[in-house]
Amino acid sequence: MVAGLLLVVTGLAGCRVRSHVTVHYDGPAPTPAGVGHTIPVGSSTQVITVDGLPRTFHLFRPATLPAMAPLVVMLHGGYGSGLQAEGSYGWDAEAALGHFIVSYPDGINHVWNAGGGCCGEAARDNINDVGFITQMVAAIEQEVPIDKARVFATGISNGGILAYDLACNTEIFAAIGPDSATELATCPSPAPISIIHIHGTADPIIKYDGGPGQNVGAVIDGPAIPALNARWRAIDQCAPPVVSVSGLVTTSIADCPSNRQVELITIAGAGHQWPGGAPNALGQRILHTAPPSTALNATAVIWQFFAAHAKA
User: Fold this and answer.
1) CATH class of the domain at 7-307
2) Angle between helices 91-98 and 298-307 (to 10 degrees)
3) Could you state, in order of their start, the residue ranges of all structural domains in the chain?
4) Helix-, strand-, coil-residue percentages of the chain, each rounded to 5
5) Do 296 and 267 meet the contact criterion of CB atoms below 8 Å apart?
6) What is the pLDDT of residues 236-264, one digit of tens each?
7) How far apart are CA 208 and CA 204, in angstroms?
């Protein structure tokens, strides 16, 4: 599977003390009285039942939240996990500064069914990951007041591909922020949505110019990233993009109706990784992935974009 998000780094967050709650959930969102608890401050883990399967997600709630809190869903990549994503990409610290909740769901056997045969066991068994994420958001909304105009999804690699699938098949997100990802699922009539996409030109697994990538358990064969970005500009009925260059970073920003934007950030020479994330020397040596680019902090950049693009 897509190797930027490594099982070998799951230990980064696994040593943290966490509260654990099981919510039996299958179908429509429960009433608040039926849940019987709220999300504690700090890190916690919950389990819901979706399509008869127990599904796990991890939450970070900062000490201070507004009356109606934003929610960011962070989707790990192939061979990753929710705890690995929490420990690797800096979203807890960003949430403490920005006063929002972060959810880190777990894919089945560390992968997501994100369309186009990707990826692994989840795709083979046609796991309903869009349904899981949708029901997870609904369950969280029963426990803490969430601003439905400020629900966002981000993800790396396999997780970023799922973020596009969520944009294609739901209307609960105000914006998505894929990194080192592409779109593989069919997407015939998506609703307009703000998008910020970050990608390195030297990504060997999900190629910036499109076509089959390096086989790391699954070959990802997607469109050229600039073409994908242009397609979403058309969906969003955006104005022509404004392009700027700063060192290795090229940014294309298109303004769209109803305060939406479609943005592409290209990092020259960057590989398959989360810019500004925690390096993992063992994973880089074993799976030949690139060290994280220091050209920008993807977490801070994506959150800044999310914060400016609530639903109208």
Assistant:
1) alpha beta
2) 40
3) 7-307
4) 25, 25, 45
5) yes
6) 999 999 999 999 999 999 999 999 999 99
7) 8
